[in-house]
Amino acid sequence: MLCAGKKSYFAVVVCVITVTSMLTVSYLRLQRLSHQPKVIQEGRRCRGKTANSTITALKGNKTFIISPYFDDRESKVTRLIGIVHHEDVKQLYCWFCCQPNGKIYVSKAEIDVHSDRFGFPYGAADIVCLEPENCDPSHVSIHQSPHGNIDQLPRFEIKNRKAETFSVDFTVCISAMFGNYNNVLQFIQSMEMYKILGVQKVVIYKNNCSHLMEKVLNFYIEEGTVEIIPWPINSHLKVSSKWHFMQDGTHIGYYGQITALNDCIYRNMERSKFVVLNDADEIILPLKHPDWKTMMNSLQEQNPGTSVFLFENHIFPETVSTRMFNISSWNTVPGVNILQHVYREPDRKDVINPRKMIVDPRKVIQTSVHSVLRAYGKSANVPMDVALIYHCRKALQRDLPRESLIRDTTLWRYNSSLIMNVNKVLSQTILQAQK
């Protein structure tokens, strides 16, 4: 009887598991069917004005669209990078217009608010819609209903529709430049270090900066190094300059930095072999290699199947300096001279140093600031003897005496090229304006 009881119990368990699996499969199939594009109108011209702002507010539903991107890595979808209220935005629909047949398809969106929201009511979101199978739409409109008139809604051009050959090896994404940014000397030094290390493109999400900084940005734009993405997020939301929600009525943290980083990855997915996510006062310094290209070749060889490489951040306090490289012509330029700051703080006990990343953008689905949230492939922490992030900023360990800091002159390996290149930029921008 005991044996029969066990068999009977086992049969019930198997039956329950089987039924649950069938119900789950049926539910998922119904969910997918509900997201399939449906034809709602035929024989129409595509109407609506094409959006040309970086951030576009959708009327009345707490949703902001940055840009849509074609993504066929799993299925044929349009992925819109956006910002939404994490509780109040429940339903959105993509309206695709297919030419030349004039069919309008509506596709229910999956709204995926990124997990790294840090308590703020608004967060970065992927708004993902299945595309019509027999059409490659060039534009999409977003509506909160599958019915109605979208003629007055903005249309967004779907980027990355055509695969391209890489135009650059490394693109640096900087987000976001705000607070009337005026650290001119350090910015120029960082830019020139990036170029020495092998960067061809720097994308900056600019909220605002000083008039002097504007001159420097224009120089780099004309040179072809910098691409500016206007980032007027404070025209739409109450922004915080802090990363964590402080119950102070703000809507989104750190000027929407996470949204900008995600947009930058997708924006450069088809044109850059690697994307580097760091701030303007951070430089990934290789210790075993002369530049990033040889470093990344080595790291990829040692870490097959890895798409995300994380580098440890180390603070070089701007309050502790050396007399070396006190260049008189630089003293009139606002900002920090990084060559004079070669003392770094030691590691703190029980505190993990934050990291920044070099990623293969085609393998990233969602990113945060210090790690990726979703990606194809593995992540690898790069050992400190291979490379570290030189981060010259205010001290974190303010009470440490100078003798407790670690002298690290890795940056000086590049000093002659760096000084020459910085002088060249200054002579054509700041110093020229001062004459």
TrEMBL record:
GO molecular function, a single term: glycosyltransferase activity
Gene assigned in the entry: Galt1
Protein's UniProt name: Glycosyltransferase family 92 protein
Positions of transmembrane segments: 9-28
Keywords: Glycosyltransferase, Membrane, Transferase, Transmembrane, Transmembrane helix
Primary enzyme class: transferase
Protein's cellular compartments: Membrane
Membrane topology: Single-pass membrane protein
Cellular component terms (Gene Ontology): cytoplasm; membrane
Family classification: Belongs to the glycosyltransferase 92 family.
Keyword Phosphoprotein attached: no
Native source species: Grantiella picta
Enzyme Commission code(s) on record: 2.4.1.-
Record keyword Transmembrane present: yes
Pfam family, one: Glyco_transf_92
